[in-house]
Specification:
By secondary structure, the protein is an alpha+beta fold. The protein is 57% helix and 11% strand.
Length: 412
């Protein structure tokens, strides 16, 4: 009865310690994340119909390339998601990031282990007992063990929570990287495709010009035979014809390069892929007025840069938590005996429980350096985010200016 009462008191003390630690685990050290401000213009210089953008990086973009109404492009673009190896790498990186989130969350829970062991040992004759506490000196001892151990480190200062926060933000940034890679590859495919079709149209124009210049050369020779034209006129006509033929051949080199690039984008060897010539004759589709603002609302690279700021901010708290003590609760129980017949009986049980606390008193400035590193990493993430936003505004301004200026050129 006395031993049972002691065990109950020990269990009650352990529960009390766990309750106290659990109530204190609400403390989280380190700065809470607040998105830093970024300088944005009130309006686009190149477009007066600008509106304030709202984050919509999670909006499904869909098959935007269908806007061009080209069945071949539609077929090729659909293969990017299936076969492009760069996209495979980005997707695997995203899965790694989500796995790291689950790994960080595992620290919320205790770890448990179960073992099964057998030891045969001979104790020195001068020893009064074995290391295991069984038998006496001078004999062989068998020890059968079935330990069950559990330990838990409460998230006393929010170290685990900051780590989970950082990994969650990193996973979201990785999702933005995946979408950025997908959009980049799809747009690269569309650009290469239309560049190739433009070269097809250019080659057709050069071939038609070659036919015309060949006729012009023949007429010039006839005029020379009649005494109307000079030998210089023939040389000029021949030069014009040969130059045009050379340009038509040179276009074939550029077209082959674009065709090879398209093959790689859809995950095929260039030697096994080909597209027949098809000159570009369809006019470009009209650009919706809302595209500039929607572009900023839906850019995944901006979302990824913002998420990396939060991840870096959480790492500051993770580093600061190392300055505080670590508390560990552990318990071990099971069965242990020197006879297999009594191994799993109630008198062969054992247990041990109790908390432990540790604090690093000197580390040569390691924790301070790690904290400074985390703060510098956050400052770098802020700079990257702001630069990404500025680059996005630059891209919109560049393309709006190109649309306006090229429209004037087209009229001329």
């Amino acid at each position: 009865m006395k031993h049972r009462s002691n065990r109950r008191r020990a269990a009650a003390h352990l529960m009390l310690v766990a309750a106290v630690l659990g109530s204190m685990s609400g403390c989280v050290v380190g700065p809470n994340y607040i998105r830093p401000p970024v300088l944005t213009p009130d309006a686009y210089k190149e477009n007066v119909d600008w509106k304030v953008a709202e984050p919509k990086d999670d909006v499904i973009r869909g098959a935007w390339w269908e806007l061009f109404g080209d069945e071949t492009l539609n077929r090729l673009a659909s293969q990017v998601d299936l076969s492009n190896q760069t996209l495979v790498v980005a997707e695997a990186t995203y899965r790694q990031a989500t796995a790291l989130v689950r790994e960080a969350r595992a620290a919320y829970f205790p770890t448990m282990s179960v073992g099964l062991g057998y030891t045969r040992e001979r104790v020195a004759g001068t020893a009064t007992s074995s290391r295991s506490g069984f038998g006496s000196g001078g004999g062989d001892v068998s020890v059968f063990q079935l330990p069950i151990e559990a330990s838990w480190t409460p998230d006393f200062w929010g170290r685990v929570r900051r780590n989970v926060e950082s990994n969650q933000a990193s996973a979201q940034a990785s999702a933005g990287d995946l979408e950025t890679a997908r959009l980049s590859l799809q747009s690269e495919l569309a650009q290469d495709y239309f560049q190739m079709r433009t070269l097809d149209a250019q080659k057709k124009l050069l071939e038609d010009s070659t036919v015309a210049f060949a006729k012009a050369l023949e007429l010039t020779k006839n005029r020379y035979a009649s005494g109307v034209a000079s030998r210089v006129d023939i040389v000029q006509a021949e030069t014009q014809l040969k130059t045009t033929q050379a340009q038509a051949i040179d276009v074939g080199v550029q077209r082959a390069q674009f065709e090879h690039a398209i093959a790689v984008l859809i995950g095929q060897p260039p030697s096994l892929f080909s597209l027949p010539p098809d000159p570009l004759v369809t006019p470009p589709p009209p650009i919706p007025v809302g595209v500039p603002s929607a572009l900023l609302e839906r850019r995944p690279d901006i979302a990824a840069a913002e998420r990396r700021m939060q991840a870096a901010n959480a790492q500051i708290g993770f580093a600061i938590a190392a300055f505080y003590p670590t508390v560990t609760l552990s318990v071990a129980t099971g069965f242990q005996s020197d006879a297999i017949s009594q191994w799993l009986t109630w008198p062969s049980r054992f247990y041990a429980l109790g908390p432990a606390i540790s604090e690093t008193v000197y580390d040569g400035g390691l924790r301070r350096a790690q904290t400074d590193q985390a703060r510098a990493g956050y400052d770098a993430a802020v700079g990257t985010y702001r630069q990404t936003v500025l680059g996005a505004f630059q891209g919109v301004e560049d393309n709006l200016a190109a649309l306006r200026i090229l429209e004037e050129e087209a009229k001329v």
